[in-house]
Design goal:
The protein has 416 residues and is of the alpha/beta class. The chain has 15 helices and twelve strands. The strands form two sheets. It has a seven-stranded mixed β-sheet with strand order 3-2-1-4-5-7-6, with helices on both faces. The protein has a five-stranded mixed β-sheet with strand order 9-8-10-12-11.
Length: 416
Amino acid sequence: MEEWVKSIVREICAFGPQVVLEIGCGTGNLLRKIATSETVLEYHGTDFSYETVAYIEKLLQKTSFGIGSNGLERKIKVTHREAPEFEESEIGKYDTIIINSVVQYFPNVKYLTEVLETAIKLGKPGGRVFVGDVRNLDSQEEFHAAVLLESPNSVLSKEYIQLGDLLEKVADRVDQDFELLLHPNYFTDLAKLNRDKVSHVVISMHRGRSWNEMARFRYNVVIHLQNSVRTIVDHVPTVCYGWKKVATGSVQRVNSLVDIGDILRAKNHQLFIVLDVPNKRIARAEFLASLYRSTESSHSTFLTQADKLAIKYETNSMDPEEFAQLGETYGYNSRIQFSRKRGCFDILYFIIDVTGVRSYIDETEEDDLAFHLTKQVNTPRMAKEKRKVFGILRMAIKAAFKTYKYEGPVPRLVLK
């Protein structure tokens, strides 16, 4: 958890924030670290919970966070309000707006879009909106497969369980997931709908050695706002390397970290990208989730046999953090981002300012954007309703079996 917080704080503070708004500040995990940054002049935290706001206010009375009591009162403010609420005086005020580890609790895509468009409105030209810790809809099956495989009561402890049993459990958990998950394309489509205010969007995976849920199945987004003269400087990498791919006219082949180290050491490129590297963080879960999605996989296969193949698949994949640290060794910055190829990542290396680099995500027709937004998220309310209906049906069946003196187990229900 500490590594996760440090990574987010480092990413936000790299922008040199001055006037900051945090929507959903919680108990102040980020507030305590970012508000004390030398560049920050004002930090406004908001939360819908009275108890949380009261907690932070009490905390501020007890400690100055190293700012000093006089400066603290002017620098930090916390307010109770809902995420989309704002005052007219706040429009265009903040150079940095933070919405971290919050959007998964929003009820639906309409509410989410309202909050983000409000944040864009409150942002200062040339500023940014940081949306952190977003659950990835594109790896929902992988996440639930990993939870089932790695929990203390893992289904793998049963030697002869069949693959179909695991896949059925994955399907149930996906069906009952009541948090809001977003495909990365949601944010690029949102940017296009707000192109008069938004310059571009940068989507990146978490840095770090800890293979927790945040590093494996969540991502961060920075929505960069148009500056006052509306100039956009986009750097598009023209030098591309493909991981163990057959070389083509535009893509050269690299086979190992040693190859990449040689390229970095030579410093012939200020900006280049390595494409489609298998992601070791999720390799095992990705392999089993691919069986879940396949119509050809044999569900009668023993899970232990399938998992042996998954582990072999994992040994042929790579840890993204190794690539990022290798870049630092030779003076390169890096960004880990999603590949177009499922289960893989791209690593962007640069020694120039490339805040304008866009993620490689397919374009969407302009007329379809508003509709397309709704297709980039799940429907958590439906999961809650299904769970409610499931409970009602289960109680009704129990009552029916009791009436007819049935002594066997209650049949399992799967709602689709």
